[in-house]
Amino acid sequence: MMTPTSSPLHRLLPALLLATSLAAQEKKEGPIQDNSFLVEEAYNQETGVVQHISTFTRYQETKDWIYTFTQEWPVFSQKNQFSFTLPWQRLDASPDRKQAFGDVALNWRYQLVGDGEAPVAFAPRLSVLLPTGDEKTGYGKGATGYQVNLPVSFTLGGSFVGHFNAGGTLTPRARNTDGDRATTRDYMLGQSFIWLANPRFNVMLEYIYTNAEVITGPGQTQRQGAAYLNPGIRWAYNFPSGLQIVPGIAMPIGVGASRGEKAIFLYLSFEHPF
Description:
single chain, twelve-stranded antiparallel beta barrel
């Protein structure tokens, strides 16, 4: 991710120069409307278009990492979207410290307001989190969870876009590594601003806050908060076939109670007609 002797700017500069050069050669076209990194955008997939998204996050201090694969499909029209997320991770706090699957998410989202062409878009999401991860090793919650997120996207003039998220997760009878059960309630707030420097190149700044409950005993929980600023960039390669490839890189930085924590976030999306 990051070494103490390398500044974020030094690492981002080669990609910045490459993306700017590629973008300068492209004729004017619509802006990138890809998924944000940590903050969800409110644009459903267009009819007949599928997206495959890979993310990789690695934390500097703990060496923890998580890889996720998400696939998004429109259901009959842009109004409805189905997606799933598969997580593969390695946690230092896990008793065996081995790589393993986490809890799989099944997601449904409804385009209630606007779309990618509107100044304001709103697409509430409902997810079911399946207990596929092993709670005994810390890779799952040991029970089915239910998550709601309310993403709103809005334009700010011709060069900036903002995204706001508010969400929560309820997991009845979740279980910790000791086998203790309790109901957990987790919350999340997020805000991002994206500078459309070029139709094929974006500069991004995200803020995300989470407040989660961890099980400390039978029927007992304790709250833990975390907050991160996430500066990053993304750029696009467009092909005549309709395929769009969007790589991205960001560097989450802990703030507040999370101060001192650093990570690297890698993003890769393939979007194409089907």
